[in-house]
Amino acid sequence: MMEAPLLLLLLLLLALLLRSSSSYSDEPMQTYILHVDPKMKPSVFPTHYHWYAAEFASHPSHILHTYDSVFHGFSALLTPSLLSSLLLRHSSSLLSSFLDRRRSLLTTRSPQFLGLRTQQGLWSRSDYGSDVIIGVFDTGVTPSHRSFSDLHLGPVPSRWKGVCQSGDGFSHLDCNRKIIGARFFSKGSEASAVLVGGTNRTLEFRSPRDADGHGTHTASTAAGRYTFHASMAGYASGVAKGVAPKARIAVYKVCWMNSGCFDSDILAAFDAAVKDGVDVISISIGGGDGVSSPYYLDPIAIGAYGAVSRGIFVASSAGNDGPNGMSVTNLAPWMTTVGAGTIDRSFPADVILGNGLRVSGVSLYSGPPLDGKMYPLVYPGKSGVLSASLCMENSLDPNEVNGKIVICDRGSSARVAKGLVVQKAGGVGMILANGMSNGEGLVGDAHVIPTAAIGASEGDQVKAYISSAAYPSATINFRGTQIGIKPAPVVASFSGRGPNGLNPEILKPDLIAPGVNILAAWTDAVGPTGLDSDKRKTEFNILSGTSMACPHVSGAAALLKSAHPDWSPAAMRSAMMTTATVLDNGGQLISDESTGNAATPYSLGAGHVNLERAMDPGLVYDITNKDYVDFLCGIGYSDKIIQVITRSSANCQGKRPLPEDLNYPSIAALFSTSSTGMQKKAFIRTVTNVGQPNAVYRVRVEAVPRGVTVSVKPESIVFTEAVRKKSFVVTVTADSRSLVLDDTGAAFGSISWSDGKHVVRSPILVTQFTPM
């Protein structure tokens, strides 16, 4: 029985807590991230946490995370009034604050498609990424998976300082010489769930264990071991392997099935990963509300700067909101932003209509086939009800769809969820038709009923057939896996596009990598669709998204880091960008899936990564921390705002540098619409020779658009053992009277430096803007 004094003490503490919380009952509490000047801590407090708890929080339990590596400060539950009061009373200590935001995940054969070959080139020279540590920020990992075996791996690198955190379904024994560390960050997510009325823990593990599958997939894409007899229900069968099969994996679970990924948790993961000793960070997480925040209000940009400034390469997804313009996310110039392309493998499924017309589609359906039997075909959208055309929950009339194949429009709900709606209403199959925004871009899914995904124009054909036929009918023929598809790569229609919505002087995305129909490891916690009702189990799954493209570049960075340990993150990005290919496997310019036309740097950046060439790029465009600070000065940030990002004071006094002079491997020339006639821009770039010490490079200007002239001075640069760096000036002149821009408002060209062995290519963008 509890003794009276102890009971009295507990009751007193409870009363204090209730009094503390009741004073804010009139206002909702929210999670805020506060940036603090660490030098202002009074000496009376032994740690920053004690200072934060005593002076800035209404109660110590309201503090969620403290940050002291990539960021100085804390996240806490506060009311807006309390926040305003704190900012007013502690204006010298509190440098900035921002509301915690929810982010979204951006969801084999691809290593060969990147140019990697067993016992050759970069794989051989880098020892498959051995001892490089990749930190994966995602939904966790499934540790027992074959892809994470540590067989024949050496000891954990001695520089590793991380931990293996235990929890639901995950113990310290689940780490090994492959998964060398694992942490989970849930306080921001849990606080949000509590604030909106509770959380559901039944499907989630409060541990680094993956209940979603996304994290297992991305981790194995970056660094999965060779796994024989891999497939997804027979599709894409073969040997699965990551880009850097011997690299070590450190898991940082920041995304949760029920609530998403919160900035406060992501920032805490950056803080931990830097201290743990990772070499590469892979973050397949998008921009949250679809609007790009300034860098000083973006914890991913802030955390990434803290990592990159310490020599850690950060790869991020470009987003899945293409083909809309200005849809690219993760825009900070210190991050490498990756779009998605196809590979030369497909999973065809043909829709055969009652009139004999055959329509091409794709599918990963693996259940009982239709065996050529024709079924009645119906389009619920004929009724004019939008929810029915989209096959939303409870929108279909069983009397109308029972025993029939149903055509559903893509959008508003998960593609696989639409098939479940059709199944519940008694439908026997589904044709999933793209809308105009999706174009002809096709994504395979492991549907629960016989389904084929078709493009927008094919969808119109099927709907026209339904309208004209007295008794429309169809069947679906599934044709398995096809290899050697041409053309490939093609820029995926969903891949985020430029222009850069924050600073158009920096071209984003930087490049593209395989991101369509990628086979990789999967969790044992959910079925391949991720639907609660999907009880199937699969060791591997096939997914598409810039989430899948990002870990390809993370793995590539691990290989480059192993082969060139002295290269900076900017040098590694430059090596991948300047050697990227702009040609497909048919020798033609890479095309854009959404239009069928040649892709532009707004969609593919510098091109598709080619790792065999990236290993030996010849020249690199390097960038220092000071260069990034100069860039931030150039875009008009104040010294105090820059300190939020860089953790140290800046001095932007005097003439500010031009943001376009950041030593980036691409060039964006912005000309004013208010000026007529000739306009001129000059860009300074510096290259570092990382090839043979004695070399002469000559420049070639390529594909100059109409109304533009490009000149480079000097036209040749000479390197010796004593001279490894050389600068040059690119002058872009535009004549507004003859300038021809495409439908994105831009024109594109390139310059290339070559010594006869290497070709170092940089895209050039020309566009116009209207002054404010």
Strand adjacency order, main sheet? 7-10-6-13-14-15-26
Oligomer: single chain
C-alpha geometry: globular
CATH class of the largest domain: Alpha Beta
Number-wise, the strands total 38
Proportion of beta-strand residues: 25-35%
Question: Count of helical segments?
Answer: 19
Work out the count of structural domains. 4
Largest sheet: 7 strands, parallel
Assigned CATH superfamily of the largest domain: Peptidase S8/S53 domain
CATH topology of the largest domain: Rossmann fold
Structural class: alpha/beta
User: Helical percent range?
Assistant: 10-25%
Uncertain spans, ≥5 residues at pLDDT below 50? 1-24
User: Which second-level CATH architecture of the largest domain applies?
Assistant: 3-Layer(aba) Sandwich
Radius of gyration: 27 Å
Mean of pLDDT? 89
CA distance, first residue to last residue: 73 Å
Keywords:
772 residues; alpha/beta; Alpha-Beta Plaits; Rossmann fold; 4 domains; disordered N terminus
Topology:
Elements: H1 4-22, E1 30-36, H2 48-55, E2 63-68, E3 72-78, H3 80-89, E4 94-99, E5 102-103, H4 110-113, H5 121-125, E6 133-138, E7 179-184, H6 187-195, H7 214-223, E8 227-232, E9 235-240, E10 248-253, E11 255-256, E12 260-262, H8 263-276, E13 280-283, H9 299-308, E14 313-317, E15 336-341, E16 345-346, E17 348-353, E18 358-362, E19 375-378, H10 386-389, H11 398-401, E20 405-409, H12 415-424, E21 429-433, E22 451-454, H13 456-468, E23 473-478, E24 482-483, E25 490-491, E26 511-514, E27 518-521, E28 540-543, H14 546-563, H15 569-578, E29 591-592, H16 601-604, H17 611-614, E30 619-620, H18 625-634, H19 639-646, E31 667-672, E32 678-689, E33 695-702, E34 708-713, E35 716-719, E36 725-735, E37 746-754, E38 759-769
Parallel strand pairs: 6-10, 6-13, 7-10, 13-14, 14-15, 15-26, 19-20, 20-21, 21-22, 25-29, 31-38
Antiparallel strand pairs: 1-3, 1-4, 2-3, 5-12, 8-9, 11-12, 16-24, 17-18, 17-23, 19-23, 27-28, 30-32, 32-36, 33-35, 33-37, 34-36, 37-38
